Amino acid sequence: MITRMSTLFLRTLREDPADAEVPSHKLLVRAGYVRRVGPGVYSWLPLGLAVFRRVEQVVREEMNAIGAQEILFPALLPREPYEATNRWAEYGPALFRIKDRKGADYLLGPTHEELFTLTVKGEYASYKDYPVMLYQIQTKYRDEERPRAGILRGREFVMKDSYSFDLDDDGLADSYRKHRDAYRTIFDRVGLRYVIVAATSGAMGGSASEEFLAESETGEDTYVRSTGSDYAANVEAVVTRAPEAQSVDDKPAAEVHHTPDTPTIETLVDFLNSTGERKFTAAETLKNVLVKTRQPGSDEWSLLAVAVPGDREVDFKRVEAALEPAQVELLTEADFAANPFLVKGYIGPKALQDNKVPFLVDPRIVTGTAWVTGADKPDHHVVDLVCGRDFTPDGTIEAAEVLEGDPSPDGTGTLESARGIEVGHIFQLGRKYSDTFGLDALGQDGKPKRITMGSYGVGVSRLVAAIVEQNHDRDGLVWPREVAPADVHMVMAGKDDTVRDTAERLAAELDDAGVRVILDDRASSPGVKFADAELVGVPTILVVGKGLANGVVEVKDRRSGERTEVAVDEIVDHLR
Ligand code: ATP
Ligand code: MG
Ligand code: MG
Ligand code: MG
User: Fold this and answer.
1) Is the pLDDT of residue 301 over 80?
2) Which ligand is nearest to the CA of 455?
3) N or C: which end of the chain has fewer CB within 10 A?
């Protein structure tokens, strides 16, 4: 089918939209690919939908290729399954919750682990049924605090989410590896430059989770990579030991300082200054309490620093509430002595207040001297860790700044930081959901076996924008062919019948040869047509015009700008 500009539902804009800051947002709107309906809510117009469908198809093909089966869930979901996993509450304000006319609670699905687990439980019973991988390409809803950059961070967006169900850990590792390989193929095919970064710390949970980040300055994720190897990690996940940390690590537990009382900010500052290592001011210090946490069903403890302003007490009820359903216990001196700097996470005062889960930081942000109160509260160990860097007002830290130039944890070089757009995320869930819903298979020995799961997401709509971030110039979009809305954008440059007849004939022949053609058959001036062709970004621009007098047409490569003249009789073969 030939797409004709004369009838195409498309109006390009000469000006950038006022609300757009990043290139993909500006260009996708200007080129008439998407239109805003509301904050973080966009519609796809014909050219946009064509690209979206191409990307979706690549994702679908690669999922099918690893044996995943496509199904489709509704977005409108009852509350109960999400209540069972506590995500109804845990998701906080990001969850769209609605009531039906009878007053029953529903939500618009932000991700579908619960439903997939229940569905597999409903259909499968025996070990012979497993393993199985299921996926959907479906609209998700998240009431993002800051919807941003058009389709890059929407409140309604399309995700491919898949889930693997295996009988044992080896099976899960295999499903995970298959997804990892499929994701590489997907992102290679759509022409993306990307890195795979550890999303959780290797020290804490193996390679249980990795993110695929499209390299882009406009990305919201900061990652570090080693100058000497392909080690890369989200800054939130890096666990290394700084020189100071190592030196403290060497010290015996006896060096932990005991004080008679919970320190006030002043006593803390006095104490730190008395150690003579460096001078501290009150502004630099923040009291941290170390706790240990573990997820239900897990036997692995993580250490977590909970920060409070230096003059305030920590409210442990709130720490527990923020971390639910994880178990929380105060850190004992023995725990601390065993692993003084494996602080997995950090809760700032703001996060605590908002009931958010903690984010992960590099433990080297907390270097310094341990501070333990023991005498009056033997079970209450307050460990103060002093940041070498400033805390931002909400208690978070620019971890990337801390890590830049530091030694890489794999010992291969130093770390450099860069930014990226999260386009995919693969995750070994383990038995979190199968425990909640009791997903078992009857084993060969007649005993029930608990299923282990993985979940894997690709932001299909976000991927369209990420591709644009890497593929554009000042004149417009520059699509990689695999996802382009057409192969050839033919400009009829001239009004006489020869131009029209030749263009029509060539368009028909190209179409027959399987080449996807946009034909600019409008009455507009060549200047308008050329500008639109650049903006729309199809890989090859074909100009049918003056050259016909010499029997040639002009082929322009959209990306390189290179122009070549090709004989009219040869052009179909040339382009097919
Ligand atoms: P982000 O860190 O960008 O908020 P996320 O970690 O919350 O993403 P996941 O829950 O891992 O997202 O979802 C899987 C994929 O869905 C992400 O890797 C991303 O590509 C995509 N995605 C998530 N949120 C959005 C959104 N608001 N708009 C578009 N795509 C999104
Ligand atoms: Mg998110
Ligand atoms: Mg993320
Ligand atoms: Mg993610």
Assistant:
1) no
2) 1
3) N
Confidence of residue 63 (pLDDT cuts 50, 70, 90): very high
DSSP code at position 233: E
At a CB cut-off of 8 Å and minimum separation 6, what does 352 contact? Answer: 306, 308, 315, 318, 319, 322
Using a 10 angstrom Cβ sphere, with 0-12 exposed, 13-18 middle and 19 or more buried, the burial of residue 459 is: buried
Asked if pLDDT for residue 458 goes beyond 80, the answer is: yes
Task: Write down the residue that tokens 């409008």 correspond to.
Answer: 522
Report the nearest-CA residue for atom 29 of ligand 1: 153
Task: Name which residue sits closest to atom 3 of ligand 1, judged by CA.
Answer: 422
Amino acid letter for position 157? F
**Burial status of residue 38 (CB atoms within 10 A of its CB: 0-12, 13-18, 19 or more):** exposed
DSSP sequence for 46-71: HHHHHHHHHHHHHHHHHHHHTT-EE-
Where is 510: in which H helix or E strand?
helix 497-512
CA dist., res. 84 & res. 436, Å (int): 7
Q: What confidence score (pLDDT) does residue 481 get?
A: 95
Better-scored residue on pLDDT, 283 or 76:
76
- The ipTM of this complex is 0.99
Q: Is any atom of ligand 1 closer than 6 Å to the C-beta of 153?
A: yes
The per-residue pLDDT for range 74-87, each reduced to its tens digit, is 999 999 999 999 88
> DSSP state, 357?
P
Give pLDDT, residue 255.
Answer: 29
Distance 230 CA to ligand 1 centre (A): 24
- Residues whose CB is less than 8 angstroms from the CB of residue 569 and which lie 6 or more positions away in sequence, other chains included: 551
Ligand 1 neighbourhood includes 111 CB (under 6 angstroms): yes
Measure Cα distances from 41 to 99, 144, 388 in Å: 21, 11, 41
CA-nearest of 77, 300, 72, 89 to 205 is 300
Band (565; pLDDT cuts 50, 70, 90): very high
